[in-house]
Amino acid sequence: MRLDDTIAAIATPLQPSGLGVIRISGPQAVPVVEPLFKGGGKELQKTETHKLIHGWIHDDGKLLDQVLVVVMRAPHSFTTEDVVEIQCHGSPFILRTILTLVLRQGARLAKAGEFTQRAFLHGRLDLTQVEAVSDLIHASSEIGAKLAAQQLCGKLFHAINQVKKQVVSIASLVEANIEFPEEDTEFTHRDDCLQRLNQASADLENLLSHADRGRQIRDGFSVALIGRPNVGKSSLLNTLLREQRAIVTTIPGTTRDSIEESVQIQGLAFRLTDTAGIRKTEDLIETEGIRRTQNVRDNADLVLLILDASEKLMDEDLSLISEIEQERTIVVLNKKDRMTGKRPIWHKEISGMDAVLISAKTEDGCDELESRLFAKAALGGLPQEDQTWITNRRQQHAAKQALSALFSAREGLIQSNGEEFLAVDLRSCLNALGEIVGETTTDDLLGQIFSEFCIGK
Ligand SMILES: Nc1nc2c(ncn2[C@@H]2O[C@H](COP(=O)(O)OP(=O)(O)OP(=O)(O)O)[C@@H](O)[C@H]2O)c(=O)[nH]1
Ligand SMILES: [Mg+2]
Predict the structure, then answer these.
(1) What's the number of domains the chain is made of?
(2) What is the pTM (predicted TM-score) of this model?
(3) Rounded to whole angstroms, how far apart are CA atoms 106 and 346?
(4) Dihedral angle computed from the Cα positions of residues 193, 194, 196 and 198, in that order, rounded to the nearest 10 degrees
(5) Is residue 223 domain-shared with residue 298, that is, in the same domain?
(6) Ligand 1 atom closest to Cα of residue 338
(7) Is the same domain home to 301 and 344?
């Protein structure tokens, strides 16, 4: 990985838009842009850092676009290198042309995530912050974005460092005892070490305790909309999305394949999946659709079981009701607008269950359904200001390894195994902790993390 050349990329989407940004980073960032830019009354080299300068980009004397340019001199930039950003009009043609001119001046096209990779390699960000940048770019809800922003501030990095300090302090006591064994054979710091080991394990367990929830909040809670044909699953999907996404007809069996769409409800992201209605059928395509429905239902965080409140229950409904897992299911009684009484006559069949009466057609009761969905998702707790959560699988895996090394060290200490064994466990714990923040992460893994970034970030 070279760090001494100058990289450039378009940092905004290639779609006609108000503004577009081209980003250049490296020792030649300013000289590369200098010949292309006229404005500000003086050379770019001589302009102040972090100040927007108005001017024009020109190509061989021909004016191309009116722009704002900012120079951010090292080390006070995202990459800690000299950075120039050109804000032009967001036309894909203009963006590509300016990038071509910049590359012609000697910059190299940046790879995916290369700006962030430079920030990491120059020590500006640790790996948890790198991953937070990616989470923020992909954040689809207020609470998910908040979790990512906390991580970008370095909260997780700080928490891991605290555990590391604790482990280092134990390791130094142990290593000292190996180098300068005490007269009597007993390891005098045993109780002290045990106490510190317990503290470090408790801190790590605390960080890990919300990992699954953190992931749900980041990626969105998966919600399966299931029911027999024609009860209004697709209509409900459209109502919750506030767009006509799925085909709705009076013909039972309209939806053949699952459709997933995301929606934000009260600050949380939900991934709603409309499914093929469950019934007995000889139709090959529908049978496959129903198999997929069952799969979606079994793997979902939450299930909306939809029943038609204006009709009698059918065998398919009863069979779905009998399979309900109450803690993750909300029963939705749809078509309230077509009902005659206050409740469906069969209401007792679902008594004691979390149920809500709605009309996907008139939207009556849909606010209440959204509140119930939010409440069910929030049941396991939401991130609080003073909490730090591990949110991704890579961090979770490494933290579990660190924890198991701590358990092994503790066991060894209790069994009075030799200090050498203890030292090995502590080193492997430190190695796993280092992996979380990117100190001991392999190049392959780093390459993989950065390759998942977008170009220009
Ligand atoms: N009156 C009334 N009709 C509704 C309501 N919700 C859905 N419908 C109607 O019920 C019919 C079936 O709706 P869909 O949303 O296609 O039902 P589905 O459960 O997706 O059906 P499949 O895809 O066949 O499994 C359509 O004619 C809808 O207009 C409602 O709240 N009130
Ligand atoms: Mg449907």
Answers:
(1) 3
(2) 0.82
(3) 75
(4) 160
(5) yes
(6) 1
(7) yes
